[in-house]
């Protein structure tokens, strides 16, 4: 979902780069009898889906409890004197797409996130659930941000535990913003243990502020490059391109709605594995922050 100034990385304006970055650093869990993500080689390595013996109804209840926790926590905990911030969001998406691949074809998903920011650090947890299939995942991440001149940089790490297995992933985001509202970002996510590869995204866009900054409209374009994540090859491969538009409406200093429309188009890397479909995704949700 656009990168604001580094000092505002958890600002009420949702950050599509931050969300995709944190979403890529995740611990994934699915229930017994789910439809596994159609993610080719990466599905066998990075996803590492673990089957549970518990009831899917319990997972749905857990998701609802977590979503309520997201809503209530920022309302009951106030930021401290050292500038710490609690934030949360709930997002519905028409598809679950990453690296240009629809992981759960024709399935809608809902995710709830809760996080804590202090100084230049961000800690967050996300639970994602498919609406019509037995699939759920939980993710945790830690991130640190800083500036070098006019360039904003953030880096993060996550450890994935599945039974007796674990993976280690790291990510980085480099962002350059101009006074006109145009931005250029480079994002990297690497798996250091299982796949031992990386995926890179180069994106650009334009933040347009309207109605005294109550409405933000951001058209953007993105190019995805694979290095052993989608396909088990250690050569850089052009994977896909996408473009879309994000709309954010700020209700108050602590509450905002957002709506994103994005389309994905496969390039050589996906076409070589017969992933030729153009994909569309619509996301809508809200974010609260205190």
Write up this protein:
With 290 residues, this protein is mainly beta. It contains four helices and 15 strands. The protein has helices at 16-24, 40-47, 56-76, 268-271, and strands at 85-93, 97-98, 101-102, 109-118, 121-130, 136-148, 151-162, 165-177, 182-191, 198-206, 208-210, 215-227, 237-252, 255-266, 279-289.
Task: State the main characteristics.
50% strand; single chain; 4 helices; two-stranded antiparallel sheet; 14% helix; 12-stranded antiparallel β-barrel; globular; 290 residues; mainly beta
Summarize the biggest pleated sheet: 12 strands, antiparallel, barrel
What letter string, H or E per element, gives the SSE order?
HHHEEEEEEEEEEEEEEHE
Strand content: over 45%
Which strand order do you get reading across the main beta sheet?
Answer: 1-4-5-6-7-8-9-10-12-13-14-15
Overall geometric form: globular
What is the mean pLDDT? 77
Q: N- to C-terminal separation?
A: 20 Å
How large, in whole angstroms, is the Cα Rg? Answer: 18 Å
Structural class: mainly beta
Q: Which segments are poorly predicted (pLDDT under 50) over 5 or more consecutive residues?
A: 1-59, 74-81
- Please report the number of helical segments: 4
Helix content range: 10-25%
Number of strands: 15
